[in-house]
Design a protein that fits this description.
Rossmann fold; two-stranded antiparallel sheet; PRTase-like; Uracil phosphoribosyltransferase, synthesizes UMP from uracil; transferase
Length: 128
């Protein structure tokens, strides 16, 4: 019994409008992605598995959020400032600020990464 090789062909989309062209359009320079490590890929695999329990899903998705927050903090502009305390002691602080569109989703992760961080919220309302 001889086996004939199966020709290798690229899978075609069911409909041309379903074609994902993301690989043809590179991301803008202002967009950063997490480095794709074996750990991150394992975390993605766990949270995408339909057999993953709710507790495991929450634990591993929180881990991904912490990794994302840590990477995001690396991209914040930081300025050195000298402040004087009420007792005339001078301290050098590194101050950073950033804006999030929906900060509530990552606030717990930010608090876990930066224990004593102060978070301020401002509601910006646009008139349309």
């Amino acid at each position: 019994m001889s086996l004939s090789p199966i020709p290798l062909t690229q899978p075609q989309p069911a409909h041309p409008s379903n074609t994902n062209l993301a690989h043809l359009n590179p991301l803008p320079k202002s967009v950063f992605t997490l480095p794709q490590t074996a750990q991150l890929e394992a975390l993605y695999t766990i949270i995408r598995d339909k057999e993953t329990s709710r507790g495991d899903f929450l634990f591993y998705s929180d881990r991904i959020i912490r990794l994302l927050v840590e990477e995001g903090l690396n991209h914040l502009p930081v300025v050195a400032r000298t402040v004087e305390t009420p007792t005339y002691y001078q301290m050098l602080l590194h101050v950073g600020s950033g804006m999030f569109n929906e900060p509530q989703a990552m606030e717990a992760g930010l608090r876990e990464v930066c224990r004593s961080v102060r978070i301020g919220k401002i509601l910006i309302q646009r008139v349309r």
